[in-house]
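User: Can you fold this complex?
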Amino acid sequence: MGHKTEEQLLQIDYAPPKRDWTDPSVDFEARKGTWSYPGKAKNLQYMGFPNPRDWSPTDADWQLPEGWEKIIHDGFKERLEKYRSLKVFMDICVRCGACADKCHFYIGSGDPKNMPVLRAELLRSIYRQDFTTTGKLLGALGGSRKLTPEVLKEWFYYFFQCTECRRCSVFCPYGIDTAEITMLARELLNLVGLNINWVMEPVANCHRTGNHLGIEPHTFKDNIDFLMDELADITGVRCEPSINRKGAEILFVIPSADYFADPGIYTFMGYMLLFKYLDLDITLSAYASEGGNFGLFTSHDTIKKLNYKVYHEAKRLGVKWLIGGECGHMWRVLHQYMNTMNGPVDFLEVPKSPITGTVFDNARSAKIIHICEFTADLIKNGKLKLDPSRNDHRRVTFHDSCNPARAMGLFEEPRYVLKAACNHFFEMPENTIREQTFCCAGGAGLGNDENMEMRLRGGLPRGSAVRYVRDKHGVNTLSCVCAIDRATLSGLCEYWAPEVGVSGVHELLGNALVMPGENERPTDLRGTPIAAREGADHA
Amino acid sequence: MPAPRYPRAQSSRRTPEPGLRALLAVLADHRERLVESWLDAAMASYPAEAQGFFLKSTDPFRNPVGATIAGAIGALADGFLAGADPASLRGPLDDIVRIRAVQGLGPAAALRFVFELKQVVRTVLAEAGCSEKLAQDGVFLESWVDALGLASFELYAAARERIWEIRNRDVTARTYSLLKRAGAVEEDDDSCGRPVTGRRPVHVKGGREE
Ligand code: SF4
Ligand code: SF4
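Assistant: Here's the predicted assembly.
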């Protein structure tokens, strides 16, 4: 061995050792802040889910049920037969790498297993071993692995590090959708009792009372009354929304965060002002009191179970059609799944705006429209008196939420509403919006506290774009149409783009909407003084 | 592409000693090499696959980690070469530290890059055949890096504290109207100081102040 100089002796290699991706081990203790607490036994019991027990990912023994290998194998087999897409996705990836650097979690962390291609490979390697001849024959050489408890732990870690945002699928030449792979991997994990409480608790609560917080109908009503008192104080206008009113024309479904959480409540106030302004024949339901459906992050059966209340309430109340409020994954479930999962919704009619007469042909089969479609149509037809200068203290940008934007193509309507309601609107850079939008990093059940470090890592791409428009245009408001976003982007901005607040689209519409008989309105719906109003002509 | 974020580094009020000027002048001639080696040192804490990605694209939206760290290392190097007061470089330093504070590196690995400037300078001088400059002006290098290191400790601690503040605020925000209706929260009197932005600072009555 050659003699080392002092210089060389001082050079210590700090680089992490290169790891073989097939090694599944995850040090949960060292990675606190990047995983979510497991589902509590009581919630699994409530849902009748298998293997309820209290455990922690830092335990050496995860108390898997007897015969867990067979349970996973059979579950996998069943799903390969049932979902043709899963089989195709398992077979056709050519590992071209186009998706590799498109995931916000990889972009923010550099952890190779956050690359969509490798995330999928975690499942695919087992597929090869169990379901393909070459995989069986070639073993590790053919990219297969044996299913071990360590592999399940790795699945738990990485499939609960995917927000099912679908950004990667936009770039895959074969249209492989890693979000769907994640959904099915989570279904498999659920079969052996591996899930997270931030999903299981809302699921169990929803099943019991209809909403994530487990709030019962009287509290639902009291809370709405309380918000309407506050709204009357601010605007001088009293709104009295109907609840459970049979025979109403429209059922309005919203996420519970709109009537509980800051800043969702201001969006709720915006909706209520709009409905009052139009004297719209619309009702809320204290049973369908949650549009959010964490079944989407659990299993197809659970989506169906939890959404049934919306279907049933529409039927029971005898409404003609539905409007969905500002919630991302809710919109996906209601618009894309309800008709086939719970439906057909053949007792409903094609939505037709009673104000403008517009028939929403795009909703001919689903019978539900998004509130932004409804409002954009009103504005287009000149039905709303708006004073956008009441939002002059806000310099606004728009975050495309993954589900409404990438999965559903709802790009223009929210922007149309915002531009009518605000004088200062600025887009974030092209490769961070519309179908290329970056996730809030808190969707699919990952928006909990214990996972905060992972959320902030994954939130960096969105945060960088927000910071950019903050610095360039003085943007101070990040607007969006999703309750999860409103919750998670608030923290994200606090960290990556301080001084930018988060608001819903209909909050800003509510600020601008000139209500008959209203007060002077020196403040916006949050009680923030509208500085720019001084000396301005009040409509 | 975004405008450069950092203002030109200010020279320290004290003019560098003549010898020191010579040291910095040698290094300034090798600025590119200095920046490149410093960046490599910072990137060494990431997995090999990720280093390639972080170093590849300069698009701050496709690759915010790499682009931010590269830009900020450049600004710090320029500050060093200008003999700037490290306190004036908190902007770029914070940009790097804030990212590394959420990447699971732990404080030592997250901040090691600051101290690696010493080794980088030694190497660059050795390559330029000017190692003797260090004997004269090593004290400047040592104290400059120490000052930057101390600033990075503060920024790291602030970033970690901010994560906990965000977690706390998340908890009250989630059920804000329920808490308010129950009279369990009261708004912070200072909230009018930050009218549009952020979540309303609230105190949970009887609880720890946020
Ligand atoms: S769906 Fe989103 S979170 Fe999941 S792997 Fe793809 S880009 Fe990443
Ligand atoms: S882009 Fe598609 S085919 Fe290419 S590696 Fe990713 S999943 Fe596989």
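Residues 202-538 of chain A form one domain. The first strand of chain A starts at residue 242 and ends at 243.
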